[in-house]
Design goal:
The chain is α+β, with helices and mostly antiparallel strands. About 65% of the residues lie in helices and about 10% in strands. The protein contains ten helices and six strands, in the order αβααββααβααββααα. The longest helix is centred in the middle third of the chain and has 67 residues, at about 110-180. The two termini are about 50 Å apart.
Length: about 425
């Protein structure tokens, strides 16, 4: 039975064995994640589309060329018996052929083209802000996965230490039971405790394996490559400009850009009530009184009934709505920052409370002391198991607090609107 347990534990450790191992900084892992993330790539494509829209908005409308009133044939009765009533243009081309050629160019008035370019530029800036914010949001989730994976890895080490300790006691109790020094119930109790920790170890290992698979997939790497993240360059310290979050937060910047966008849209709708003009030039060959007639014209719509009143009113309504949304976003952001900051401070205080009395080294020494006293029968098995369970729970709480604290640190930076990639020494 002992050999089966040991073989099972060795099997659980197989996911840690890989054909290659790489040590990356957090920034390197994040950059690879962003390069592999399809949503980020879509955001970059949208940014390129917005750049193309600026180029398109700068262009003038193309002129229109028309060829009309071309007679493809003529009869002798139409020519009054004459063989040639209209001379050819070149050689025999155009003989007895009447036609009209015209060209027309639209001229946009009211600054519509300029306003369209400004609108496209604002949309490009807004798309850029959204793309950057989406990247930060994706990075926040990616880091939480890394911290959770490291938590399960560290917790497995704690469980493995306790499992080795319980296994040592279990082996000793088996020998002492054979000699009649301890009861069967004590042996069953220590074995049950060992199985319980072993089951918890297996669950932690399964959770680690699932996260490891997900992270490798997000990075586009084979699971046979063991990836370790170096966090030594990170300064888990709060930004020094908490009071300036309104100047930097991308949500507020996006809201302000949305307002500017709606203002330019309103200006463009107001410009639409000014009619555009179409200038034309026309050459008519034997189509009227003169054999060769060149004329010019102008065409425009009379703004009598439709002066774009409905669209102007709709654009004004959207502008007012955007301003209200920005005010609501500012209040929600202030509340969010207050909540996240309180959560961060509580986690910092709680971690200091956990570690202020005992260090990991002192607790391990106490653990060995309990083991020695148990084997020397100075304490009961119940006291020993109670301490080991307490030690395990204390380590679990500490590891969970570290995971939450690291995640909350980046969550707070994200909420403050600071670039969470600017965290290195």
């Amino acid at each position: 039975m002992r050999y089966e347990i040991l073989a099972f534990i060795a099997f659980l450790q197989l996911p840690h064995v890989a054909t290659s191992q790489e040590l990356w900084s957090l920034q390197e892992a994040e950059q690879l994640f962003l390069n592999q993330n399809i949503e980020i790539q879509e955001g970059k494509a949208e940014l390129y589309v917005a750049e193309s829209a600026i180029q398109q908005a700068k262009l003038f409308n193309n002129p229109e060329l028309t060829l009309e009133q071309v007679n493809l044939w003529s009869t002798q009765s139409q020519r009054d018996g004459e063989s040639t009533v209209i001379p050819p243009v070149i050689g025999s081309v155009g003989k007895n052929t009447q036609f009209s050629i015209g060209i027309e160019q639209e001229i946009r008035l009211g600054g519509k083209r300029k306003k369209g370019v400004q609108l496209a530029r604002l949309n490009h800036r807004l798309t850029s802000l959204k793309q950057a914010y989406s990247s930060e949001e994706a990075l926040l989730h990616f880091r939480s996965l890394l911290f959770e994976k490291d938590y399960y890895k560290a917790y497995q080490l704690t469980l493995r230490e306790e499992l080795d300790l319980l296994h040592q006691v279990s082996q000793t109790y088996e020998k002492q039971r054979e000699l009649g020094f301890i009861s069967t119930s004590d042996l069953l109790r220590i074995q049950a405790a060992e199985y319980e920790v072993e089951q918890e170890y297996m669950e932690a290992n399964q959770a680690w394996s699932q996260l490891n698979e997900l992270i490798h997939s997000l990075l586009g790497r084979s699971i046979t490559e063991q990836i370790e993240i170096d966090y030594s360059s990170i300064r888990f310290e709060l930004p020094d400009i908490l009071e300036q979050h309104e100047l930097h937060h991308p949500l507020l910047q996006m809201g302000q850009e949305e307002i500017q966008l709606k203002r330019k849209s309103l200006a463009l709708e107001k410009a639409q009530k000014i009619p555009d003009i179409r200038l034309s030039g026309n050459y008519d060959r034997h189509g009227g009184v003169w054999p060769n007639f060149i004329g010019f014209g102008i065409r425009f719509t009379l703004p009598i009934w439709n002066r774009n009143q409905g669209n102007i009113k709709a654009a004004q309504t959207l502008l007012d709505l955007e301003q209200s949304k920005l005010d609501a976003q500012r209040i929600a952001l202030q509340n969010k920052i207050h909540t996240e900051l309180n959560t961060y401070n509580q986690l910092v205080a709680f971690r200091e409370k956990i570690t202020q009395d005992f260090t990991d080294e002192s607790l391990k020494q106490i653990q060995q002391s309990y083991l020695k006293n148990l084997l020397q029968k100075n304490i009961s098995l119940i006291e020993f198991l109670d301490f080991t369970d307490t030690y395990k729970e204390r380590q679990k709480i500490l590891l969970e607090t570290d995971r939450k604290l690291h995640t909350q640190y980046f969550t707070l930076r994200y909420t403050l609107g600071h670039k969470t990639t600017h965290y290195e020494n």
